[in-house]
Structure formats: structure tokens, C-alpha cells
Amino acid sequence: MDVTLQKQFDAFEELLGDSHPALRVAAIEGVSKVLSAYWELIPAETIRCFISKLVVDLVNDASSSSVRAAVFEGIQFILDNHNSHSILKPLLPMLAPLINDRNEKVRAEFGALLVRIKSIRNLHFYDVVPVNDLLCRMVMDRDSPLACKQLVSLFLNSYFPQSVGGSSQVARCLALVRKNPEAAMVFYANVVEHVSVGSVCKLAALLLRCSLNFVSRRLKQPQESEEDDEDDEDDEEESFSVVGQVIVLEVIGNLLKSVHAKVMTDARYSECKTFLREHLNVESLEALLLAYSEDRPYDQEALSSIWRIIGYLGDLSEGVLLERLVENLMKMNENSSRKLLESMVDCMTQWEQLPFLTSKLAKFLDQWRMNNFRADAGGPKSKKSKKKEAALNPVVVLGTIEYIAQLSSLKNLNALLQPIVEVLGACIEPILEFDADEVNEAYKANSFGFIRLLEVYAKVLVLAESAHVNEETSLLVDKWAKKRLSKKDDLRDLQPSEFFTPPKTLGSLFAWLARLMLDFRKEVEATEQTTHGKKRRRAKNVDAADQLSPQKELLSRWRNLFSLVSLLSAESVAYALERTHWLQNGPAADFVDAYVDTLCDTLRDMEFFERTVFYQAGQLAHLLESVRVKATKAPVAQSANLVPSLEHWINTLQQALVGAHDKDKGKCDDLWPAVSASFGEQCAVESPAEETVT
């Protein structure tokens, strides 16, 4: 019998060391179950050998994450036998570093092991991995649902116990907020997976009451900074009320977000909806808004969280609060928190008020076009017009438009954006006729607003076209679902990129930016030559001359704007080139033609070397070359029209880049190896084709 057992143990040991990961995984599971079931019958030396193999060697198997995960799963089997606890207890802390394993499945299995350890009387999970490390890991795993779920389950009884009263739950929540604010936000955002929806709603209501208590104390007590009679506990509460209270509001928002879909749409949770209507009423929310509307430190962060809360309450909070939201939106300026602006837009999205908002934004842009942004828009303004200007800041309007355009999940986003795109186009059309002097005047009048207008216009053009692609793709999917398309149907071959047309006006904007950038560079060089002469005569003015001049500041921001539009154009080109049906004279080809011509003309017209232009041209050459290599491997029918166009664009760019390099070698030698790397690749790919022809 002993010989037979030893043969089995030897077979297990051999399988645990097998070269194939799948066999090692199966062996780990088998050995673990055998140890769990027959611990008392296995020799102690054999047990130590197997445990050492698992906990020391295989758990650190760098070649397979499945093997590492299998070890944690196997240890859970072994722990089912109480005789294993005394041996495993001193060994388990050795596994602590693996809580940060790069593989999510391994971290999830480790979390499951810690949950299992928590249920064993003589073992403690915090002796295996410190609590602070686990909380930090939970924050890092906020976007890893498998691992995060286990860690939330691990701390459930500590920070959201179900067997205690509401006051104890609030106290535990505040304790976690003090200990690790980020972990508190992640924990309560995911706690709904482990408790009932009603429990989550109840905690949200209790925390809101706690917030109201804080702000009522804050409003009643006069601000007397010279008084020092408060004890240490009062000081702690006050410090928590200023910083930690914002986190509590974030926690409330996360709780409501986690149950929003169920409470607002599922009739089974009608009681929860009624409960929220009673305890998170308009009066309470208005009191919170009032308490944080005095522009004190952290007020804007608190307001952002409050508007998130209001938005997740849906139609329970619309009415009066919609007027207050519009009022607060009109008070915002370029220094206001972007997070607050986004929360208010999200709130209007939940209320289905975006059409109302976008119509107002379009009207204001049209008014701004007629009154303010033009370089020659001077003259006196009435008090009434000044009030209108102060009521809605142009930078806030542009930021709101930019954020709405990024909400790709919105239904009918393209329809919402079209009026705004038209008004933005009307704003930009006269600007594209400006020369350098007119741009200088417009920049001096409203530097941030002027540049922001150009940035947002470029982004919205691409995002609106992307929204159009999403809508067309959705229609295609619906048609596919309703009617099975035959193999001969052309719609079967359509890709989303087939619906994408690069915006023609983006090319016009890019050409205008490139032309003016060269003009601004000439102005800067001329100014520097004049300043350099004065420096030598007046050494006292060296420090003043070294400061960034208005011309240099404009040139720097113009380069950034040029790079942004160039990147948007390159992304549009890359997406358009994914289509399988390519037209040599189509709008996409015309856009690439214009983009390439603008870069090449700018490279040739440069009196002073511009690294930005050289770099962007090199990047486009790399992009087109990678597409060309891929196209040569595609079926002949698909590549017949595309490859000749690609070769023409690549050759044009290469000639312009070589010319610019020969002209300014010393200024672009560091960029040249990367830029010219693809030049040889084309020759290497083309050489077989040339031999075949001959």
C-alpha cells in the first residue's frame, strides 16, 4: 500500500512540474483536493513538500497567470480541512505581494482566498495583507470588476454591516472616509452587488441627513477664526466638514448611481423610489446648494457632487431645481470648475433637457458672433447687453459644447450637434479670412476665448461626424437584425468607416492655421532681431527681454492649436482609410489631398524651421506607409484604387521632408532618423513588384 501511495505522490509531483501550464493547473487542483480530503492519511513530510511546491514555487510561476490563480483557488480547498490551518497560517503572509499581481484573475482569486480566510475563526485576513494595502488595491482595481468585487465583499461587514442600525452604518462610512477617501468612493460605488437596493437607498438618505447636519452647523455658527475654545473633537469634526464632507457627497452620488437604473425604471422598486422622494426632497437639496454657494474652498467640488445627486434622482428633483441649475450655469466663468460644469450637463441629460440646453447654446453663439468675438467689434455697449454678456460666459458655452459632443452614448447626438455645428461654422467663416494683424487684434481682445473657439470647433467637427457614423451603424445593425441579409448584399461588407467622411472645413481650418503660423514666426524673428540689438546697448533690460513676449505667447499657443488640428486630421485620415470601398475622387481622397498639400506647402514655404510642421508631416508619412503595407496584402479588388493614391501621397511627403531636411539639417537631425525610417520600407515592399514586372 505504501509503495502504491508513493507512486501516486511521485506522479503528482511530476505533474506539478510539467512544462505545459494546463497540466500544472489540473495538478494543482487535484493535489489541493487530495490534501483537503485525506490530510490525516498523508505523511507529514509529503504534505510539507506539496505545500512548499504550491506556496513557494507555483504561486510565483512567471510563465502562466492561470497557474498562479490556480494556486489561490487550491489553497481555498485545502483550508476546508481544519488540520491545515496551523501549517498555512505562517506561510500565507508570504503571498502578500501577489495582491498587486499584473493579472486581474490572479488578484480576484487572491481576494476570494482572503474572503475565505475571513470566515475562519483562528485566521485573520489582515495578517495576510495589511488593510491599508487592500484599500489602496481596491482603488487601483476600480475598473477591474472581478478583483474589485472580492475586495468589496471582504470589507462589507466592516464598513457596511447589515446587522446594525443606521447610525452605526453612517459611523462606519465616515470612518472609511477619514481612513481612505478614494477607497470609500470605490467601495460604496460597488456595494450594491452585495446588499439590497433598499439598503443602499437607506444609507444614501442617512448620509444626506448627515450632510445637512454639517451644513446647518456651518451656517448657524459665525466664522470666528480667533476663537480657540473648541476641544480636539470639535476641531476634528470641523476639518471633516470642510474636506471629508465633499467625499461624503461623492459617496451619496455613487450610491445613487449604482441603483439609479433599477429604482427609476423597474416597478419592483417603487417603494425605494417613494422612499427617495420623501428623504431626498427638493428642500433638502436646495439647502445643500445654498450652503455651498459662497465660493469658499471646496465649494465647487461640493456643488459638483450635489448636482450629480440631483441628476440621479431623475424626475424626482426636476421642477424648481432646473431653474436653479440654469441660474448657476449663467454665473459660471472661465475659472469655474470643469467638473462642476460636467455634473450640471449630466444632470440635464438625466432630465432629458439637452435639446433645451443646446438650443440656448446655439443662440448665444450666434449672438456672440454678431457682437463680441470679431476683431473689429468695438463700440459702446448698453447695460442690458453687458448683463447678457455676463450672464453666460463664452468660454463656459464652448466648454459645455465640447463636453456634450463627447457624450457618445447619447441617443440622437448628431441631431443635437447639427445646429451647434452650423452656428460654430458661421462663427469661424469670417475668422478664416483674417490675416495676421486681425488675428492679433482678436487675440488681444479675448485671448482665451478666441483660441478656445478654434479648438472646440475643430473637435466638434470630428465628434459630430463620429456621432453620424454611430447612428448609421445602429441603423445598419437594426436592419441586420430585422432582415437577414443575403451573402450578395453589399451591406454585409460595409464597415463603420464607410459612413465616415472627414470634415472638409477641418482641412480649410488647418490650411489657415499653417499659413498664419509662418507669418507669426516671421514677426517673432523680426522682433527678436530688434530686441537683440537693444540688449547689447542696454544690459539692464536683459531680464525684461527674456520674458515671454505677446508675439511669442501667441506663436506658442498657435503651434499647440496647429498640432491639435493636425492630430484630428490624421485620426480622420486613419479612420477613412479603413474602408474597403475606396473612391479616388471621393471626399475622403480630397481631404487627404488637401492635408498632404498643406503640410508639403508649409514645409517648402518655411523661412525659419518649424519643428511642429516637420514632425506632423513625418507622422503622416508613417501613417500612410503603414496603411500602404497593409493594403498591398489585401485582395486586389480592394487595393486597386487605394494603393496608387497612397504611393502618390507618400512620395509627395517624402520629397517635401527631404527638402526641408537638406535646408535645415542642423535643426532637424534629431528628428530625421525617426522620420526617414519608413522611407526604406517602401522600397523593400515595392522591389518584388518591380522584379515581377520586368
Give a count of the beta strands, DSSP E runs of length 2 or more.
0
Uncertain residue segments: 224-239, 374-390, 540-545, 682-694
- Into which percentage range does the β-strand content fall? under 5%
Q: What is the residue-mean pLDDT, rounded to a whole number?
A: 85
N-end to C-end Cα span: 79 Å
Helical coverage, percent range: over 70%
* Main beta-sheet strand count, sense and barrel state: none
Radius of gyration: 33 Å
Q: Count helical runs.
A: 35
Query: What class, by secondary structure content?
Result: mainly alpha
Outline: globular
GO biological process, one term: mitotic sister chromatid segregation
GO cellular component, one term: condensin complex
InterPro entries: ARM-like, ARM-type_fold
Commentary on this structure:
- With 694 residues, the chain is an all-alpha fold.
- Helix content is 74%, strand content 0%.
- It is built from 35 helices and no strands.
- The chain has helices at residues 2-16, 21-38, 44-57, 65-79, 85-88, 104-118, 125-128, 131-140, 145-154, 156-159, 166-179, 181-190, 197-220, 232-265, 270-279, 282-291, 299-312, 319-331, 338-350, 354-371, 383-391, 394-405, 413-431, 436-445, 447-482, 504-537, 542-546, 550-576, 587-605, 611-632, 636-639, 642-663, 665-668, 672-675, 677-693.
- Helix 11 crosses helix 13, helix 28 (550-576) runs parallel beside helix 30 (611-632) and helix 29 (587-605) runs parallel beside helix 32.
- 34% of the residues are buried.
